[in-house]
Each structure stands twice: as C-alpha cells, then as structure tokens.
Write a structure and sequence with these properties.
Number of domains: 1
Mean pLDDT: 86
Structural class: mainly alpha
Distance between the termini: 27 Å
Number of strands: 2
Strand content: under 5%
Order of helices and strands: HHHHHHHHHHEEH
Length: 266
C-alpha cells in the first residue's frame, strides 16, 4: 500500500506504473509472490518437521531470496531483452549513480559522515521497532482489537513510515522504477527473516501463524500482482492522483481487511 502513496506523489496526470518504464520491478514483485507463497506452504507443515529449531521452509525462503537477488542483479547488468515504453520516466537504474538534482547535505558530504548517519538511523529504527511492537500489542489489547488486525493496519502503517519517506523522495527525484523496486525488495527481504524468528523462538514459527496471517499472505500476493500487472499494462490516466491499479489496490485492500475482520469473528 506504500505504492499508493508513492503513486499520488509521482504525478498529477500519469500513473506511477506508467512512468516506471522497466521490467526489473516486475521480477522483484514475482520474487515477493514466491517467498510469500512459501510462507503459506510453511504454515501447513506440522511443527515437528524441522531442522533443529528451524523450519525447512524458513531455510527455503532465505535461499529463494538470495537466489532472487542474484538473478535480479545479473538481469540489471546484462538484460537479455530490450523494452520500449514510450512516455516512461524510469530514472536512475541504481542509487550508486549520482542524481544530477541531488545536492549533498552537511550530514552526507563525505562517505564517513553518510555511513555514520546511516548506522545511527538504523540503530534508532531497530530500537523503535521493538518499542512499537510492545506498545502496539498493549494498545490493541486495551482497545479490544485483534492483534493481527491491528498489526495489518495501524502498526503496518507506522512501521512503513521509512519506506513511505524513501519512496516519496525517490519519485520526486524522478526515480520511479527504483521506488517500486525498493518497496518490492523490502517486502521480499522481510519475509526471509522468518529464519531469524525461528532461531530466536527456538522452534518453527510458521506452523503457528493461523488463518488470519494466511489471509494476509494471500492479500499480499494479490496486491503485489496488481502492481506487476500495472507495470506491464501501463494505465496512463489518474483518478484523484492515483492510477487505475492503485485505485483497484485500495479497494482490494479494504475488502481484504473486511475479510480479516470476518475471519476473526467466526
């Protein structure tokens, strides 16, 4: 859903997926679909099927992610096809290439300063993530809201703030393809952290995910597929600053949350 906000910031008259002008983000979206599908498969395995404290599916997800990153990097360097998308504005192929309109700030004027700021911000994000989880669970309990529903809405929005910030900044720089690829890439990486979760819990966590999380996984696959379709089909016009795919995504997300509530009440 971060892509909906990026779409609204990209252009008043042209959809974000129309501007992307590259197929690599579609490959990243397919990687997201692959690892989330593996999550759903892992949830069906009994807990006693394990490698020590780790689910074999958690290992498979991590291997899929690593292999996917390798294939994506190779495809970026040496694409085996040529794509023409008239009117597209993909922007830079990589963040390693300096943006002509970007001016270094005092905090990032040297590599050492940029690394220090990045490390400090990462540490703050790590600590804040723990505090958000604890505070979120407390708020959900006190409000009488199902924890999964609270996590899929309020907590998901708060934890997505860094991605919202970087995504909107990217589209304002004109790096439309990078913005979509970054969101998909972050989603794929987060799913690979089930391996870490198994190690911390001392047992496979996927078998205890339940129906609500299975529904959310399916919803994530559908929303990712919508934007993969959008990058290929390229809807041009905007409605209230959103492309057709973003409008569909908002509707599907709303229906998905309504379904989540229905499942929680059964």
């Amino acid at each position: 859903m971060v892509l909906v906000l990026c779409d609204s910031a990209a252009s008043r008259t042209q959809a974000l997926t129309f501007l992307v002008g590259a197929l690599v983000p579609v490959l990243e979206g397919l990687l997201v679909i692959m690892v989330v599908a593996e999550v759903m498969m892992g949830a069906l395995l009994p807990e006693h099927v394990r490698i020590g404290p780790i689910s074999p599916v958690s290992v498979g997800i991590a291997v899929t992610w690593i292999g996917g990153v390798y294939v994506l990097n190779r495809t970026r360097r040496t694409p085996a096809w040529r794509v023409e998308m008239p009117g597209a504005q993909p922007g830079r192929r990589s963040r390693r290439k300096p943006h002509p309109a970007e001016k270094p700030s005092p905090m990032t004027s040297t590599a050492a300063r940029a690394i220090a700021v990045f490390a400090g911000a990462s540490a703050i994000t790590l600590v804040a993530g723990v505090l958000l989880e604890v505070a979120g669970n407390t708020l959900a309990t006190r409000a009488g809201i199902n924890g999964v529903i609270f996590g899929a809405t309020v907590l998901a929005l708060v934890t997505a703030l860094p991605e919202i910030s970087s995504g909107i900044a990217a589209v304002r720089f004109g790096d439309n393809a990078l913005a979509v690829a970054d969101i998909f890439g972050g989603n794929a990486f987060q799913v690979s952290l089930f391996l870490v979760a198994d190690l911390i819990a001392g047992k496979p966590v996927l078998p205890s995910s339940g129906d609500l999380n299975a529904w959310l996984a399916g919803l994530g696959i559908v929303l990712t597929a919508i934007y993969c379709f959008g990058v290929i089909v390229r809807p041009r016009h905007c409605y209230a600053r959103l492309g057709t795919d973003s409008v569909v995504a908002v509707i599907i997300f709303g229906l998905g949350i309504a379904g989540l509530v229905a499942i929680s009440l059964k």
